[in-house]
Specification:
By secondary structure, the protein is an alpha+beta fold. The protein has one domain. It is built from two helices and three strands, in the order βααββ. It has a three-stranded antiparallel β-sheet with strand order 1-2-3. It binds zinc ion (ZN). Zinc ion binds next to loops.
């Protein structure tokens, strides 16, 4: 793999999960009115079943986490999506 910008061969591959890229900061008002009840509800209805599926379901039902591969040039800092 060669950097598209400076032609250096010192390029690293980085795995970045999609979820981390999309994190948005919540405002104080959101926490006051929504966050304190929405998060436990979300956890009970989405995270727990997801965990149970992960633990008990056969491998074909495994939860997929979207991951993207990025190449990062160690020479000039240029990065691009695979
Ligand atoms: Zn480069």
């Amino acid at each position: 793999m060669i950097c598209g910008k400076c032609r250096s061969a010192r390029v690293n591959v980085q795995m970045v999960s999609e979820a981390r890229l999309k994190v948005k900061r919540r405002g104080v008002i959101w926490w006051l009115f929504v966050g304190w009840w929405w998060l436990p509800i979300k956890w009970i209805f989405f995270t727990l079943p997801a965990l149970l599926v992960k633990v008990f379901a056969p491998k074909k039902y495994r939860i997929k986490i979207a991951r993207k591969r990025y190449f990062v040039c160690q020479n000039c800092g240029y990065y691009w999506e695979f």
